[in-house]
């Protein structure tokens, strides 16, 4: 690992109802584009973007649902070693907001309890069709102790801010962790990943 | 969420167990349009893992009487054309039997338990004494299921407080830090100054026994990931190969099994299985050490010395071992814990092969030939499902299939009808055994697996470290019964709460699970009691909670035993009884090659890091960044 050219690596996972713009947010941030039409990018497990924060290279590994949210069938393993969760709803879709408690239940069940959760209301470019007021969302996120932000993947509003703020927060959490533990604590991958690399290291 | 399913696919797969999930990944990976459904609300079928409350709900579901197609809005007969006929599928899974639950810990009511999604306390009303009667299975059904707690807590680090002292973690394996556990490293520091924090126990010879109650188990219920089927991964086995080759390994994390144990003369002992182990063993005499080393050395290239075993080749391995100047306890080690064979059945040549295999599997990831997936076996099938979804496969749990629709003329299946009456077309269909109707399976002879799941308070073999993962084979006592495999998991495997162990017992059934396994449970454990009565029993770990059940073993059933299945309907079996997952992998690969003879089976997907992103602000990825350890922070 010492050859890696980054100081931190974090796994960020997106969840929320289908159609709220998760894939668009990821692609806006990592590729700088708003994909025309729908459809998942076949074969892409996660996207990577390395950002620099105060002179430190932070590699963000951003995981999308692979469409499994469509019929409420996300695998638990998807949540397992996430450092941060972006819980997304669509401000023009009341239903996507009303489903948030269900998503929180999944988080509670399967994610690490050290995970940082951000609530994102997407599609603010469609303000005229807004169904969920900012105030309601703020109250909800406060009650749940989550950070809250409104974005537009289409207009690129707040998308950078979302990921960069998250990265900052993750760094400070990780710092705190290592200070407190006085050991280089891998977070949260407590097990071994298996790969050919590991195999060759033995015997 | 009123999203309806697409209706055209290449492959429809019913059941999300391991073989079906591997197949789903393989099909999707090779460009097939896959629909993967399960009638349950969870992944994995009989390969699933559950939180404690999840397990209780699962048990409850099995005890309910079949509610006949309640949800079906449209019955299939109305949807079948004249040129077609239907093969109905089973409405209710019947692969689990003889469930018996025992709760040994007190179910005190002072704790205000509040676990989200959990069945609340006083679920079962078992006496907390040592005299435990099997819980009448009907008991559970009568229980009131309290309302789900609908308050959501922020998953913040301090929501739950460590309410016990932290035991010393003297550990010789690298990564036993429980980062995710509430009582883990971080919180530990937080609570250091707490008044209720008791002093750290530093006398390892007399480990402190915690008082654990049923409500604590319920409260910490989500810490549990209880496997229905208990398996391990051979470090050189087919599943590891497949995980690595297909890159599915990136979705999971593993720990090494740290010890192989043996039950010898009424005592649990560690089997020295590496050279270092043999040297360091305190149980072995110098002479024994030398004998064992010599034997191991011989086994690693036994083929080169045919003269040494030729005469015994087809005779029992146990007889052969008697000639090798090994003491009886060493013979026992080699036979049961290393070759993992049962006395009667194993020939010398197979025993030597197994021993050699064992020795070769050592040292790849650690000191034993086995790996265990964090969060339980149930993760593995889900990982393959994720891979399938990444390549466009569509997932739908809670979707029941009423019937397969067969075209009379061609004799081929061309669609399924789901419980909403929706007709879904495909070219090939893969169905897990438990979904097939009694009629289809009327001439099938099933075996059974006997299972026990125990929650205990201490390890069956205490050492400095309380974070051991151990495997113990208890040989059969009576003829006609089978060896029992015991797997003991510590909390850092993310399968049980802190200060407990999750113990799985597995054997081929000769009777009900309890009849098959209770004697082994009694040998190794003592029921939990508030006051220690019997001093002698003191050293045994205590049983807090136990579950017995039988699971159908549908492995090794030939396809021709099923009645009247069209040629494009393929059957996957449920879990087999073996330690490893080889059966599932072989089955998936065999079926895949049958359906798509010219396609490659689960090739490596492109590395996401190699997908160069367009756009002006991209950061070029440095080559050679493959095999990144997931989410590892390098400060
Ligand atoms: C270090 C070590 C590595 C092993 N690796 C494997 C392995 O990768 N896969 C595995 O299945 N077993 C492996 N075995 C053998 C395995 O531990 C036991 O033979 C098997 O679990 C016996 O279980 P049983 O008596 O319940 O099943 P059985 O009824 O004896 O066999 C169950 C099924 O497992 C298959 N099987 C048995 N032994 C092997 C083997 N050596 N290799 C491949 N298939 C086998 C058989 O075809 C059969 O279908 C290994 C043993 C050791 C000691
Ligand atoms: N107007 C607008 N449309 C958006 C925005 N983000 C996504 N969409 C559209 O919403 C639809 C669903 O987006 P997608 O990213 O696939 O959602 P996902 O299912 O959550 O991944 C697509 O048609 C997008 O074009 C946004 O910020 N503004
Ligand atoms: Mg999407």
TrEMBL record, chain B:
<dbReference type="InterPro" id="IPR036188">
    <property type="entry name" value="FAD/NAD-bd_sf"/>
</dbReference>
<dbReference type="Pfam" id="PF22603">
    <property type="entry name" value="RAE1_2_domI_C"/>
</dbReference>
<dbReference type="GO" id="GO:0005634">
    <property type="term" value="C:nucleus"/>
</dbReference>
<keyword id="KW-0963">Cytoplasm</keyword>
<protein>
    <recommendedName>
        <fullName>Rab proteins geranylgeranyltransferase component A</fullName>
    </recommendedName>
</protein>
<dbReference type="InterPro" id="IPR018203">
    <property type="entry name" value="GDP_dissociation_inhibitor"/>
</dbReference>
<comment type="function">
    <text>Substrate-binding subunit (component A) of the Rab geranylgeranyltransferase (GGTase) complex. Binds unprenylated Rab proteins and presents the substrate peptide to the catalytic component B. The component A is thought to be regenerated by transferring its prenylated Rab back to the donor membrane.</text>
</comment>
<dbReference type="GO" id="GO:0006886">
    <property type="term" value="P:intracellular protein transport"/>
</dbReference>
<dbReference type="GO" id="GO:0016192">
    <property type="term" value="P:vesicle-mediated transport"/>
</dbReference>
<dbReference type="GO" id="GO:0005092">
    <property type="term" value="F:GDP-dissociation inhibitor activity"/>
</dbReference>
<dbReference type="GO" id="GO:0005096">
    <property type="term" value="F:GTPase activator activity"/>
</dbReference>
<dbReference type="GO" id="GO:0005968">
    <property type="term" value="C:Rab-protein geranylgeranyltransferase complex"/>
</dbReference>
<dbReference type="GO" id="GO:0005829">
    <property type="term" value="C:cytosol"/>
</dbReference>
<comment type="similarity">
    <text>Belongs to the Rab GDI family.</text>
</comment>
<keyword id="KW-0343">GTPase activation</keyword>
<dbReference type="Pfam" id="PF00996">
    <property type="entry name" value="GDI"/>
</dbReference>
<dbReference type="InterPro" id="IPR054420">
    <property type="entry name" value="RAE1_2_domI_C"/>
</dbReference>
<feature type="region of interest" description="Disordered">
    <location>
        <begin position="606"/>
        <end position="626"/>
    </location>
</feature>
<feature type="domain" description="RAE1/2">
    <location>
        <begin position="449"/>
        <end position="577"/>
    </location>
</feature>
<feature type="region of interest" description="Disordered">
    <location>
        <begin position="180"/>
        <end position="205"/>
    </location>
</feature>
<dbReference type="GO" id="GO:0007264">
    <property type="term" value="P:small GTPase-mediated signal transduction"/>
</dbReference>
<dbReference type="InterPro" id="IPR001738">
    <property type="entry name" value="Rab_escort"/>
</dbReference>
């Amino acid at each position: 690992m010492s050859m890696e050219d980054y100081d931190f690596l974090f796994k960020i996972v997106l969840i929320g109802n289908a159609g709220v713009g998760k894939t668009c947010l990821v692609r806006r941030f990592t590729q700088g584009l708003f994909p025309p039409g729908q459809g998942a990018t076949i074969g892409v497990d996660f996207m990577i973007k390395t950002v620099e924060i105060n002179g430190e290279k932070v590699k963000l590994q951003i995981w999308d649902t692979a469409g499994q949210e469509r019929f409420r069938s996300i695998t638990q393993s998807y949540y397992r070693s996430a450092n941060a969760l972006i819980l997304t709803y669509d401000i023009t879709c009341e239903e996507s907001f009303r489903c948030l408690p269900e998503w929180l239940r999944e988080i509670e069940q399967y994610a690490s309890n050290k995970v940082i959760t951000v609530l994102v209301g997407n599609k603010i470019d469609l303000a005229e069709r807004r169904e969920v007021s900012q105030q309601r969302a703020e109250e909800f996120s406060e009650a749940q102790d989550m950070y809250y932000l409104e974005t537009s993947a289409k207009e690129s509003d707040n998308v950078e801010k979302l990921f960069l703020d998250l990265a900052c927060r993750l760094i400070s959490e990780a710092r705190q962790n290592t200070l407190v533990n006085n050991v280089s604590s891998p977070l949260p991958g407590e097990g071994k990943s298996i790969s050919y690399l590991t195999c060759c290291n033995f015997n | 969420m009123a999203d309806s399913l697409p209706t055209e696919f290449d492959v429809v797969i019913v059941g999300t167990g391991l073989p079906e999930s591997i197949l789903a990944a393989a099909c999707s990976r090779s460009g097939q349009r896959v629909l993967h459904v399960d009638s349950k609300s969870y992944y994995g079928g009989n390969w699933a893992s559950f939180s404690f409350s999840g397990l209780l709900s699962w048990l409850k579901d099995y005890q309910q009487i079949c509610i006949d197609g309640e949800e079906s809005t449209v019955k299939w007969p109305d949807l079948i054309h004249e040129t077609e006929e239907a093969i109905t599928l089973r409405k209710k899974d019947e692969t689990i039997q003889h469930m018996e639950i025992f709760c040994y810990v007190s179910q005190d009511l002072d704790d205000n338990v509040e676990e989200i999604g959990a069945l609340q306390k006083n679920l079962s009303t078992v006496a907390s004494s040592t005299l435990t009667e099997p819980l009448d299975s009907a008991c559970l059904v009568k229980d009131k299921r309290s309302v789900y707690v609908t308050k959501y807590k922020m998953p913040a680090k301090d929501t739950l407080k460590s309410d016990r002292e932290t035991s010393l973690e003297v550990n010789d394996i690298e990564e036993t830090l429980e980062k995710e556990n509430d009582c883990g490293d971080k919180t530990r520091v937080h609570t250091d100054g707490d008044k209720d924090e008791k002093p750290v126990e530093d006398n390892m010879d007399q480990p402190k026994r915690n008082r654990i109650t049923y409500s604590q188990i319920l409260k910490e219920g989500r810490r549990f990931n209880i496997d229905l089927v208990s398996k391990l991964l051979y470090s050189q086995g087919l599943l590891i190969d497949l995980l690595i080759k297909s890159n599915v390994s990136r979705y999971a994390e593993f720990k090494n099994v740290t010890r192989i144990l043996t039950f010898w003369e009424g005592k649990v002992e560690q089997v020295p299985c590496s050279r270092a182990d043999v040297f360091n063993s305190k149980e072995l005499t110098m002479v024994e050490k030398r004998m064992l080393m010599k034997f191991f050395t011989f086994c690693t290239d036994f083929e080169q010395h045919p003269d040494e075993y030729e005469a015994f080749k087809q005779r029992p391995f146990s007889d052969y071992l008697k000639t090798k100047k090994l003491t009886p306890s060493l013979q026992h080690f080699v036979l049961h814990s290393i070759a993992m064979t049962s006395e009667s059945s194993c020939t010398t040549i197979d025993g030597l092969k197994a021993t050699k295999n064992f020795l070769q599997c050592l040292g790849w990831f650690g000191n034993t030939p086995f790996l265990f997936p964090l969060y339980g076996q149930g993760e593995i099938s889900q990982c393959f499902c994720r891979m399938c979804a990444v390549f466009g496969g569509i997932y739908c749990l809670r979707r029941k299939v009423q019937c397969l629709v067969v075209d009379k003329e061609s004799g081929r299946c061309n669609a399924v009808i789901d419980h909403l009456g929706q007709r879904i077309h495909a070219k090939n269909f893969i169905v897990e055994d438990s979904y097939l109707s009694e009629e289809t399976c009327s001439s099938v002879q099933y075996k059974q697996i006997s299972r026990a799941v125990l929650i205990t308070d201490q390890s069956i073999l205490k050492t400095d470290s309380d974070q051991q993962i151990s495997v113990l084979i208890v040989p059969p006592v009576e003829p006609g019964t089978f060896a029992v495999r015991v797997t003991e998991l510590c909390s850092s495997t993310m399968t049980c709460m802190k200060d407990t162990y999750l113990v799985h017992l597995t054997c081929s059934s000769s009777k009900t699970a309890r009849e098959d396994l209770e004697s082994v449970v009694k040998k190794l454990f003592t029921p939990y009691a508030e006051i220690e009565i019997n001093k002698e029993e003191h050293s045994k770990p205590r049983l807090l909670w136990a579950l017995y059940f039988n699971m159908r073993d549908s492995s090794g059933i030939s396809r021709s035993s099923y009645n009247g299945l069209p040629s494009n309907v393929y059957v996957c079996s449920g879990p087999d009884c073996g330690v490893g997952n080889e059966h599932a992998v072989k089955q998936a690969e065999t079926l895949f090659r049958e359906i798509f003879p010219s396609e490659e089976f689960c090739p490596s997907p492109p590395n996401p890091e190699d997908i160069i992103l367009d756009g002006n602000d991209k950061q070029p990825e440095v080559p050679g960044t493959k095999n990144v350890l997931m989410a590892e922070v390098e400060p």
